[in-house]
Amino acid sequence: xKISNKILKKIIINIxxxxxxxxxxxxxxxxALINAEIVDAPSHGLSRLKMYCDRISKKIINPKPKIxxxxxxxxxxxxxxxxxxxxxxxxAGIKQAIKNAKKTGIGLVGIKNSGHYGLSSYxxxxxxxxxxxxxxxxxxxxxxxxxxxKKKLFGTNPICFGTPTSSKIPFILDTSVSLINRGKIRVAxxxxxKIPTGVALDKFGKPTTDAKKALAxxxxxxGGFRGSGLAWMVDILSGVLTGGNHGGKxxxxxxxxxxxxxxxxxFIVLKSNLFVSNYNQRIKENIRRIKKxxxxxxxxxxxxxxxxxxxxxxKNVNKKIKIxxxxxxxxxxxx
Length: 335
Known about the structure:
Elements: E1 2-3, H1 5-18, H2 23-38, H3 49-57, E2 68-71, E3 76-80, H4 86-104, E4 106-114, H5 120-128, E5 132-138, E6 159-163, E7 171-175, H6 182-191, E8 200-201, H7 211-216, E9 218-219, H8 225-240, E10 263-271, H9 279-291, H10 307-316, E11 321-322, H11 325-334
Parallel strand pairs: 3-4
Antiparallel strand pairs: 1-11, 2-3, 4-10, 5-6, 5-10, 6-7, 8-9
């Protein structure tokens, strides 16, 4: 079935309001979920709605958080999200980082006591629209084994970087350090579909295409030990540095209801003209040079990160959103 953006937004806001979120927090959370659907990232969209509501019901997401923002300097802020839903914590964090960067040139914001916040690119885009460069880091529940170990400990720990491009299309690199993001495996497990070969091992260390076995086993990182190292880096930046959980202590939001996740986030935002006044001209030339390179057979255009997602957004933003039977059942149950 398909539902219009407007009607779907109203339904989800009402669900979040029913579960105790304020009108503004319900709106922030709904916009993030719908954005994921529009850019064809359903693994971070409505398939997670029931999980968020279940955690609110179990009182491990605080629907009425008292978020505290501590000013460390003109450039640096530290946020205690009070176990809020991750969308709200991240929204407060990126807005504060943007505010700091506009004042001083650099905005650094660390967040603790948060939860899963959806797509990192969603927050990066907010900074890029203000002509700012941005890095976003967040850790996640155990999914990847450190290189040389046979037990999962690091999350899929996305790395996100964004920059203005002098055009309407932002350069946004948003990638997990696993070969496939965990949300896609969860969607596959729920719908009974197979996952690609070579992206995960079962609990016995054998390759598997069974999504449920992959969730119980280990996901494989990009680039072997390099991917493992990047996952470790993100765990340090978003967990150790911020006061959030780290070293395998982030709770799985779907399976572990023993307490809050206490995920950490780190946002770094920079004015693009910190060192040169003609950054927009230079980034335009940078992209132009790369796009002019000779292409391999079958490639019509060399795309920069974020370009495909921008096209999908433009294509889908005014279309009805396709809802799976599982999501439709969730919406009916939660309404």
